[in-house]
Amino acid sequence: MLIMEQFNIMVKENLKRYISKNGNGHILIHSDILFGFKIQFERHDLFLEEHYKELKAVCQPLKIIMPSFNYDFCKGSPYNIKESESQVGTLSEYFRKNKAAWRTSIPVFNFSGIGENPIPIKYGKIDPFDKSSLFGFLHKNKGILMHYGSGFHTSTLIHYVERISNRLIYRYDKLFKSQVIDINDVTHECELIYHVRPMGYELDYDWSKIEEDLIENELIEKYKEKRTQILIGRIDKIVDFWLTRLNDNPFYFLNKDTRNWVEAKFNELYRPFELTDFE
């Protein structure tokens, strides 16, 4: 117990130091509280509140943003900005309902956060990973990325980088249509441009290599002791590093097995994949 308490204190001090040195307004937090700070469980809501208090204390003065992703839009269900629950963890849903002041209007890949919504409300045809997205805002404004307990493999920042790289070969665009219900209960028609995995094929990334490269190049810091693991890095530096890697090798993110079939398919087509190649 003493070792974990000392570890928690050390990590909090290091995170505060990193944020003080690198912070610039906002921090995006992916979470899995089972692997966050060790906190005594008494009651579910109090447990979630304690995790939030720990994060708030560490992240000050940055404004916290959390994903509130809900994938039901892809099944034809409307996305309700006020009511659609976050499907990416209990802390993100607790934050959305009890702490956040806003939520983005983007179907599926939406976020909630403190302060003012940094991106404009929009409907119609939407690309959730283009330069006008929240990812683009955080990239441009040197936001911080934290994985609080969650593995780095849950980072959707990678899809933003794939999109803006203009080097994406192994995914293709697919349109999903449904409605978005705004905070005033007005319904808007919407189309989501989602670059999906090829149907019928395994598409896996080499997350161990991706994470190790970032650590070796001092672009992220990782703290791990027993169950607790936390990663932190500056989004613009991560993005720029990945763009350089993709420019050198468009298959950089992929693991060996995926890369083998993707390269074979690319050599057969000699162009990026399209929906009609697989569906």
Question: What is the H/E string?
Answer: HEHEEHEEEHEHEEHEEHH
Strand order of the largest sheet: 4-5-2-1-7-11-10
Question: What's the total count of β strands?
Answer: 11
The overall average pLDDT, rounded, is 96
> Could you tell me how far the N terminus lies from the C terminus, measured between alpha carbons in angstroms?
54 Å
Our count of helices gives 8
* Percentage beta strand: 15-25%
How can the largest sheet be summarized? 7 strands, mixed
General description of the model:
The chain contains 8 helices and 11 strands. By secondary structure, it is an alpha/beta fold. The chain is globular, with a radius of gyration of 19 Å. The relative contact order is 0.15.
